[in-house]
Amino acid sequence: MKVMLVNLHGDTNMTAAYLHSFLKNNGHDIKSVHFGRLLYEFSPPTEEDKATLKKLSEEINPDVILMSVNSMSFWNAIDVTNILKNVTVIWGGLQPMVDPESCLKHVDIIIRGEGEGAILELLKNIKENKPIDNIKNVWINKNNNIIKNVFRPLLKNLDELPFPDYSSKNKFYILGGKIYEQNPLPHFKYEYNITSSRGCPFSCKYCANHVYNKVFNNKYLRRRSVDSVMEELRIAKKNFPKIKNINFWDDVFINDISWLKDFLEKYKEEIDLPFFAYGNAKYVNDEVIKLLKESNISFFDLGLQSGSEYIRKDIFGRIDSDEDILKADKILDKYKMRRGYDVIFSEFETEETFREGIDFLLKLKKPFKVQRNVLAYYPNFEITERALRENKITRDRVASYSNSVTSQIMNKKESEKFPLMNYYYFLGKKSIPNSFIEYMMRNNWHNKHSKRMVYVGEMINKIEHLSYSIKSMGYWFFRGEFTYIKNRIFNKRSFA
Length: 496
Ligand code: B12
Ligand code: SF4
Fold this sequence. Notes:
Blueprint: E1 2-7, H1 14-25, E2 29-35, H2 47-60, E3 64-68, H3 74-83, E4 88-92, H4 94-98, H5 100-103, E5 109-111, H6 116-127, E6 138-142, E7 145-148, E8 171-175, E9 178-180, E10 191-194, E11 197-198, H7 208-215, E12 222-223, H8 226-239, E13 245-248, H9 257-270, E14 275-279, H10 286-294, E15 297-305, H11 309-315, H12 322-334, E16 339-345, H13 351-362, E17 369-374, H14 382-389, H15 412-417, H16 434-442, H17 445-448, H18 450-478, H19 483-490, E18 492-493
Parallel strand pairs: 1-2, 1-3, 2-8, 3-4, 4-5, 10-13, 13-14, 14-15, 15-16, 16-17
Antiparallel strand pairs: 5-6, 6-7, 8-9, 9-18, 11-12
Helix pairs in contact: 8-9, 9-10
The structure holds cobalamin and iron/sulfur cluster (SF4).
Cobalamin is lined by residues 9-10, 12-15, 18-19, 38-42, 66-68, 70-72, 90, 92-94, 98, 111, 114-116, 119, 193, 195, 207-209, 249, 251, 376, 378, 407-409.
């Protein structure tokens, strides 16, 4: 079948790359259209982008259009779907999983949970003009009557899936209203996005994994074999010889020590590229960190989420105690691991928990980065229902209920709202002594000089960001990377 996959989540999005290769491998004529660069926040498609997409869609003339939709891209998805309505549009992804009814107001067919088995069966039945009402994982809005099918069993062996396709073949990239047939963004050659697993052993209350673990009885977490991951990396290195960093986007990379040992030994021997991974304090021990360090890890990102143990455990449902984190931090410091701690600020915090949190972070060994997030409330999550019930938030704070929630990264406006958060700009930095932070707190700087703190904090962020961009550009330049300019000039297509 002629299938068009419209990807709103940026050029190197893993979900789109997986779906593309899966459908291609199963004999479908698939074309993917990517919007913009993969960024940590969503930028809505412009009118120009949408007009270009419409014309491209007419040219491709697909039998069906697929879109991956999460709670934050929900409104963009509606917007884009509305201009493609003359073709059957099918949504899959997180929003259909967590709030299917909201999706069926905008499209007639959605796929919930794992997509592979369901999309194959659905496309087959559409092609053969067979009924589509009883396909597991598929929900349908049939004349305002919602047909709800149960979930199908999960894939047992992830190794059976083809590797994600990040090539530019049969892909289109829409940027600034123009179409490119080669990825015009150079970064895609330098970073390789991979996952060795699906799911997470934990069920934090604010995370999609708690939904998966509940629905699939804690069986959602599965891991690929070492051989499969290694083979993907070998091919990646061959196809993208300029890769300088691998991103392991596994929710928790280090939970299976015997897998990790086996994998890293081979990785070091054959791939030996710096890599990024997510970790969790519970799994940090001397052996694991030594292994990671010896295998060339460039950055290790840990979810701390709150320095207050009460918020971390009781509100967020995490299992790591203060003691676990302090112990892990000591080991990470011993191996001089470049690391970051993610924190999430929420309306559940009080002045007391904020202060507790800062005091706790002051105990961690420097240097470390702090990634400041605000809690993203997702539809139908218990934590969202609780926050609404207890009047901690209004509905406009919930992703997809409101079109204003498009990121969980803390911005300047949020920083100004909760003055105590502003200390997090400065925590973990070697150049700023803890005694100075304590002095600021004692003297109430967050109230007296809140705006100034935000200003300085934002400046620090900008400088860090700028130096990273300059470094990347320098890297591209000195390696003769002019594809970006070449593609922009010669591979541009315009319908105008
Ligand atoms: C890796 C990842 C990232 C990476 C992306 C790297 C990359 N190159 O792709 C980074 C760190 C950049 C990232 C950023 C963000 N992320 Co993220 N990310 C993930 C993560 C860990 C894995 C997603 C993934 O690729 N899985 C592998 C693919 C193959 O599986 P999948 O996406 O689940 O898709 C399967 C099914 O859902 C289904 N399916 C999905 N779409 C479709 C479409 C169709 C048509 C069909 C048939 C099936 C289908 O089939 C697929 C195969 O079975 C998930 C958490 C998780 N465990 O899911 C969060 C997650 C998706 N991210 C999330 C969020 C919120 C974000 C950000 C908005 C955060 C922010 N900055 O504010 C940004 C948005 C960036 C962007 N432009 O998209 C949320 C979404 C929550 C929600 N309810 O919407 C998640 C679920 C984490 C969470 N908080 O629970 N993310
Ligand atoms: S550890 Fe991370 S990925 Fe796993 S459930 Fe908690 S927040 Fe989600």
